[in-house]
Automatic annotation (TrEMBL):
Any Pfam family hit: DUF716
Keyword terms: Membrane, Transmembrane, Transmembrane helix
Name recorded for this polypeptide: Transmembrane protein 45B
GO cellular component, one term: membrane
Domain of life according to the entry: Eukaryota
Species of provenance: Canis lupus familiaris
Region Disordered, annotated ranges: 1-76
InterPro entries xref list: DUF716 (IPR006904), TMEM45 (IPR042127)
Membrane topology, as annotated: Multi-pass membrane protein
Primary location: membrane
Extent of the signal sequence: none
Compartments (UniProt record): Membrane
Length: 361
């Protein structure tokens, strides 16, 4: 009787344990199946990166995968991975570097040439110099327009779309376009200064100073959330940019000051060479191994290299100044001899003595 009474209890215990297994997640039953499906779906969503998880606001990213890397986007937008911007490659740094380098080299010849030709004479520009300034301003404006078109209409550019499908479109390209736009305005103002007499004197230098300051302002907020070496090598560029803006602003007051003009020229050359250096450091074009962007030794070397670049820029300005001086001195001496011979031949006493000598013979 006692043995029979225990059998139902044992069976009930087995049945209760089987029910508890059904209630456990992932062990069968409707609830477990639903929880298992949710777990597998969550794993699939997490494995896709930004398509269903990281790309949406308010959801955490997978460990070990940054939200935004130094060279591109670590997320997906509208089902596509963000491509690199124009500036985030070697060519993107070589283009503005070439523009600044060409303008700086031209200024290293132009300003000494104007200074030596006007030395001891009236400070007013001749008609030839005015035409030269207009042509230069037009070329700088053309460079800026080419830069804007390159930033906007490359294959992965924004194509003049700033906001699309509730998202900003290629803001880095828009920042670069804004920089080129201000330099284009500066070139146009330079042309108006020499074409229209009613433009206040010094307004062209003021607009150029504002354009240069805008370049530095944009670059200051351009390198956040990047590796240390990337931030440092771009921050060194700000020294040349803001230094140039301050020098140009002083030219509003001290116009045609050769010292300020040569100082500005050296900083523009420095910007050009340093843009190229940034491209070689961050994006080696020859397939060489990339620099360790977290190594303190690389940061120290880049700082020292920046000083070498500026020393090279100063040497370029000094050599151009010396070559222009030597060329003008030789030309003036040769021209003086020709003018002296012409004056001597036009002198009547010289002609009389020459005729007298021929009669005696």
């Amino acid at each position: 009787m006692g043995a029979r009474s225990q059998e139902p209890g044992v069976g009930a215990g087995r049945r209760s344990r089987s029910r508890s297994r059904e209630r456990e997640p992932g062990r069968g039953g409707p609830a477990g199946a639903r929880r298992g499906a949710e777990g597998r779906g969550g794993a699939r969503r997490g494995g896709r990166g930004g398509a269903g998880g990281a790309g949406r606001a308010g959801r955490s990213h997978l460990p070990g995968r940054p939200q935004q890397s130094a060279r591109g986007c670590g997320r997906r937008v509208a089902g596509r991975r963000c491509s690199r911007t124009v500036m985030a490659n070697f060519k993107g740094h070589a283009l503005p570097g070439s523009f600044f380098l060409i303008v700086g080299l031209w200024w290293s010849v132009k300003y000494p040439l104007i200074y030596f030709r006007q030395k001891g004479k009236s400070s007013q520009l001749t008609h030839y110099h005015q035409r030269l300034e207009i042509i230069e301003a037009a070329i700088r404006t053309l460079f800026s327009v080419v830069g804007i078109l390159a930033e906007q209409f490359v294959p992965d550019g924004p194509h003049l779309h700033l906001y699309h499908e509730n998202q900003w479109v290629k803001l880095m390209n828009w920042q670069h376009s804004t920089m080129y736009l201000f330099f284009a305005v500066s070139g146009i103002m330079d042309m108006l200064t020499y074409l229209i007499t009613h433009v206040p004197l010094g307004l062209d230098r003021l607009v150029m100073a504002v354009a240069t300051f805008t370049e530095g302002f944009l670059f200051y907020y351009h390198v956040h959330n990047r590796p240390p070496l990337d931030q440092h090598i771009h921050s060194l560029l700000l020294c040349a940019v803001f230094g140039g803006a301050f020098s140009i602003f002083l030219e509003v007051i001290l116009r045609d000051n050769i010292v300020l003009q040569l100082f500005r020229t050296s900083l523009v050359i420095l910007q050009g060479t340093w843009f190229w250096q940034i491209g070689f450091v961050l994006f080696p074009p020859s397939g060489e191994p990339e620099w360790d962007q977290k190594d303190d030794a690389n940061i120290m070397f880049v700082t020292m290299c920046f000083c070498w670049h500026y020393l090279a820029a100063l040497c370029i300005v000094a050599i151009s100044y010396s070559l222009v001086y030597c060329h003008l001195t030789r030309f003036k001496r040769h021209g003086g001899e020709i003018i002296g011979i012409q004056k001597l031949k036009s002198d009547p006493t010289y002609q009389t003595s020459l005729l007298g000598g021929s009669d005696e013979e």
